[in-house]
Known about the structure:
By secondary structure, the chain is α+β, with helices and mostly antiparallel strands. It has 4 helices and 6 strands. The protein has helices at residues 5-17, 20-23, 26-30, 49-57; strands at 33-40, 46-48, 68-78, 81-90, 93-104, 107-118. A 6-stranded mixed sheet has the order 2-1-6-5-4-3.
Amino acid sequence: MTESPAVVAAIEAELRLLDPAVRSSAELIGELLHPEFTEFGSSGRHWDRHSIIAALTAHDAPPARPVTTSEMRGVELAPHVVLLTFDTEHKGIWAHRSSLWMLTGGSWLLYFHQGTVFTPERP
Length: 123
């Protein structure tokens, strides 16, 4: 099955947001987050746009490290709205993730994100 251009664009934006160079720049992160962005993090914490940018770019924040993604897939829920689901592994912690991307003012912006920690099944 071929993914729609909207799904492809949302995946590209998600992968950009996970890039350590982007995650360490308030300006670059801000380019990808909707003004009304909200997140329920895998830690259980609730984040808004301002708090997540501040946390990721704080002077005492640990350096951004690569995040491994797998099983990324998307569906266009409505015109200009894409839901992505995927798994991540970062510093030995695995999380199921969902991201809601909206085409806003000509750019794909992350409107909502949620992460849920899980333990991968081992054969």
